[in-house]
Specification:
By secondary structure, the protein is α+β, with helices and mostly antiparallel strands. It has 2 helices and 7 strands; from the N terminus they run αβββββββα. Strand 4 and strand 5 form a beta hairpin. 19% of the residues are buried.
């Protein structure tokens, strides 16, 4: 869940309000280095997480990770959504910032 908050904070801080996003619709999927099932798995994404898209191919979405890196997920495992529907209210932003600071202090 903290990944979703971090992604939303990135969206808000960069002003990408009209940017397209994808929401993961399967329990646990692979995030790959490039758009191929033979490409190395670099991370996992979980049901309900939201990522900014920064491109696509016929079968793959290019997504922006919180680290700023571009990676790929298979299209059938996610659905395209509008990021503006996921922007939290000002009160939620303060809560997110608190949670991020707490998580950072604990790390």
């Amino acid at each position: 869940m903290k990944n979703v908050y971090l992604i939303l904070v990135i969206i808000i801080s960069t002003g990408l309000y009209s940017q397209e996003c994808v929401e993961i619709i399967k329990p646990d999927i692979h995030i790959r280095m490039s758009p191929s099932t033979s490409s190395p798995i670099v991370a996992h994404a979980f049901n309900g997480e939201v990522y900014i898209t920064n491109g696509e191919s016929t079968s793959w979405y290019s997504i922006l990770l919180p680290s700023g890196e571009t990676r790929w997920i298979y299209k059938r495992l996610a659905k395209r959504i509008s990021c503006n529907n996921n922007i939290p209210s000002e009160i939620e932003i303060l809560k997110i910032q608190e949670e991020l600071k707490t998580a950072s202090d604990q790390a």
